[in-house]
Amino acid sequence: SEGAMMDNRFATALVIACVLSLISTIYMAASIGTDFWYEYHTLSPAENVSEAGRSIWEEFVSKDADEKTYTDALFRCNGTVGLWRRCITVPKNSHWYSPPETDMTTNCISFSLSDQFVEKYIEPGNHNSGTDLNRTYLWRLQFLLPFVSIGLMCFGALIGLCACACRSLYPAIATGVLHFLAGLCTLGLVGCYVAGIELLHRKLPLPEDVKGEFGWSFCLACVSAPLQFMAAALFIWAARTNRKEFTLLKAYRVA
């Protein structure tokens, strides 16, 4: 009965670890795929857009839109930014001279792969001001780290499946270590994003009638990291304790 009790404890720990791992993977995937990492709330968006809306929208979607151009549009039109896309809210009506209370619609444009790796300038929008290395590398890391994190967790899950097939708990240590590394990547991603936004707002301060805040996509990534660490701790605990008790049991039997 003692052996059965031990097995139950490990089984429970592993099931909880797997559930945590699954939830954190879903959260990570959702946060990568959504556009609410950072949100701007403009107090007077409709009037702003009515005046120069057409040109703002055309500049926002153009291939040549530099960082300053699209950031100004985000400020003025209730913008939201994700890791892959940027969105602004503009009147649905194509007549920009219609009254401000028209229906609003949200339009998004994706960052291309080259946008993700393009250099950031010391003065956003000014190519002659030199490369801002800090912001350039923070941006590249925030694009790459989530994929590394998800990759590590999927790899960990594969090892876990092999462990189940072999009826062995030893590979659970490897799964735990991979989840721990995934958690570090997620923490790194959150840190890079916060630092990048802070540095951008130092260069391009928010106008007085605009409020900025981190959105729910960002919060999902923040929640994902502790879940990954908890899953890692449970995997490693189950494998190590099991190994110790297995050795003790063998010694006991021999004696």
Automatic annotation (TrEMBL):
Localization of this protein: Membrane
GO cellular component, one term: membrane
Transmembrane segments: 12-30, 143-165, 177-196, 216-239
Record has Phosphoprotein as a keyword: no
Keywords, sorted A to Z: Membrane, Transmembrane, Transmembrane helix
Primary localisation category: membrane
Superkingdom, natural source: Eukaryota
Parts forming coiled coils: none
Keyword Transcription: no
Topology term for the membrane: Multi-pass membrane protein
Stated name of the protein: CLDN1 protein
